[in-house]
Amino acid sequence: MLNRINQLKLGDAMSEAVSNHSGVLHLGMVFADALRMRDAYTRLHSDRVMALSHGIGLDIGLTRQELDALELGACLHDIGKIVVPDAVLMKPSKLNDEEFAIMQTHPSVGANLIEVYEHEDAKRIADIVRYHHEWFDGSGYPGHLVGEAIPLLSRIVTVVDNYDAMAVRRVYQEARPHDEILRIMESESGSKLDPELFQRFVKVIHDPRYAEFKAS
Ligand SMILES: [Fe+2]
Q1: Are 110 and 80 in contact (CB under 8 A)?
Q2: How close is the Cα of 195 to the center of ligand 1, in Å?
Q3: How far is the CA of 50 from the centre of ligand 1 (A)?
Q4: 170: β partners
Q5: pTM for the full predicted model
Q6: How far is 108 from 71, CA to CA, in rounded Å?
Q7: Which DSSP helix (H) or strand (E) runs through 98?
Q8: Cα of 57 from ligand 1 centre, angstroms
């Protein structure tokens, strides 16, 4: 099958760049910058999810290559929101069913974007993005995957994503304090969240090195 990069006629230099590990990481950072420019909340959220996911990755002893993919996947997890209309993405109130359906396309859209690059790193990063809204009990989306069928790196991002989403004030939602967030997450451990990774997260978020990411 022809490489999609060639189909897009992006030139030999770029084709060569994405054929190796550092090239995939570099282009991932280009995507991340594009996302940063879209909206300030998504930018800050992505940066925090990246840092805390990396902390869990270190704690469970991931390889260097897995950590690189985890960092980038965490940073890019919401990249698919690039195609979500502003009226939905920045709506200052709860989404209706139709708007929520649009919002639910963002994991697949983001993963498809990254999978254009036919490289094992890109596949690993795309999987993080595609499955970051899967829940441990199978009630998430888009694949309704259950437990360890959800890629490990995705399960890490899901835990951190949930914490940070509650830690930050949005137009339609007040920020919750740290202890309350942990109580909510504990009640969702085993249903929404991987219980073992939740425990790892608790350890990381109480580590002084990650104090800046802790809710007040
Ligand atoms: Fe998301």
Answers
A1: yes
A2: 20
A3: 13
A4: 173
A5: 0.85
A6: 19
A7: helix 97-103
A8: 19
Domain 2-213: CATH superfamily, name plus number: Hypothetical protein af1432 (1.10.3210.10)
Per-residue pLDDT tens listing for the chain (216 residues): 334 333 333 334 444 444 556 666 677 777 777 777 766 777 788 889 999 999 999 999 999 999 999 998 998 899 898 889 989 988 888 899 999 999 999 999 999 988 887 788 889 999 999 999 999 999 999 999 999 999 999 999 999 999 999 998 776 778 899 999 999 999 999 999 999 999 999 999 999 999 999 998
Compute, in angstroms, the gap from residue 156 CA to the centroid of ligand 1.
13
Ligand 1 geometric centre to CA of 132 (Å): 7
For 145-158, letters b (16+ CB in 10 Å) and e give beeeebbbbbbbbb
pLDDT given for residue 18 in this prediction: 46
DSSP string, 194-215: -HHHHHHHHHHHTSGGGGGGS-
Calculate how far, in angstroms, residue 78's C-alpha sits from the geometric centre of ligand 1: 5
Q: Give the start-to-end residue ranges of the domains of the chain.
A: 2-213
- pLDDT reported for residue 22: 65
Cβ neighbours of 202 (radius 10 Å)? 16
CA distances to 39, 52, 72, 185, 205 from 45, rounded to whole Å, are 10, 11, 13, 18, 15
**Max Cα-Cα span within the chain:** 52
Rounded distance between C-alpha atoms, residue 65 and residue 21, angstroms:
9
